[in-house]
């Protein structure tokens, strides 16, 4: 079953209940045979025994879903396909995915209140790309984002998040901006594939 198990999204009393689930880093939550027990307050959604407030859980599920659509686009591509450029002045798939992954890592670090010096523009200036390293960063961002989002309360979301090109944003807006940024660059991948004949 794609997405959150329906039993996890309901608001209710703080009662212990068994939930059959597993976490897949590419596609999100699915039913499985492994039984876990968690305690869910009225406004939390269970994630691996911990909780996210509903708004944050909804945003995280959207983030996971956007990642899954990118993963689908990348299926079957070789490392050579990742680094080919349709034209000398075009970006390749490797630079697009690495740029997006670095921006995600920087934004979710800022959600945690950490400073990040990552240069997200470097992949577009590079002349070579470590595809295996890019893939590892891309996949690991799902868990990194989850670790940034799980502790957040309603009041945390209104706190200062970052100063961006659009101005100062709070943590709620920063999370939304991170997802929107990934979705924006997601749309470039089919164009590169089409121009390469992939």
TrEMBL record:
Signal peptide: none annotated. Transmembrane segments: none annotated. It holds the Pfam family DinB_2. InterPro entries: DinB-like (IPR024775), DinB/YfiT-like (IPR034660). SUPFAM superfamilies: DinB/YfiT-like putative metalloenzymes (SSF109854). Residues 66-189 form the DinB-like domain. This is Putative damage-inducible protein DinB. It comes from Alicyclobacillus sacchari.
């Amino acid at each position: 079953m794609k997405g959150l198990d329906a039993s996890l999204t309901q608001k209710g009393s703080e009662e212990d209940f068994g939930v059959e689930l597993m976490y897949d880093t590419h596609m999100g939550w699915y039913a499985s045979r492994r039984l876990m027990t968690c305690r869910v307050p009225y406004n939390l959604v269970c994630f691996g025994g911990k909780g996210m407030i509903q708004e944050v859980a909804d945003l995280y599920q959207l983030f996971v879903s956007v990642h899954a659509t990118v993963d689908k686009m990348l299926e079957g591509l070789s490392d050579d396909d990742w680094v080919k450029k349709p034209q000398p002045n075009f970006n390749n798939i490797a630079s697009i995915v690495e740029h997006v992954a670095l921006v995600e890592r920087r934004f979710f670090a800022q959600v945690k209140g950490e400073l990040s010096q990552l240069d997200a523009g470097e992949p577009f200036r590079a002349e070579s790309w470590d595809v295996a390293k890019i893939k590892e960063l891309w996949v690991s961002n799902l868990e990194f984002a989850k670790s940034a989002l799980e502790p957040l309360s309603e009041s945390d979301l209104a706190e200062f998040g970052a100063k961006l090109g659009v101005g100062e944003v709070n943590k709620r807006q920063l999370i939304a901006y991170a997802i929107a940024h990934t979705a924006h660059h997601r749309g470039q991948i089919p164009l590169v594939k089409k121009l390469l004949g992939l």
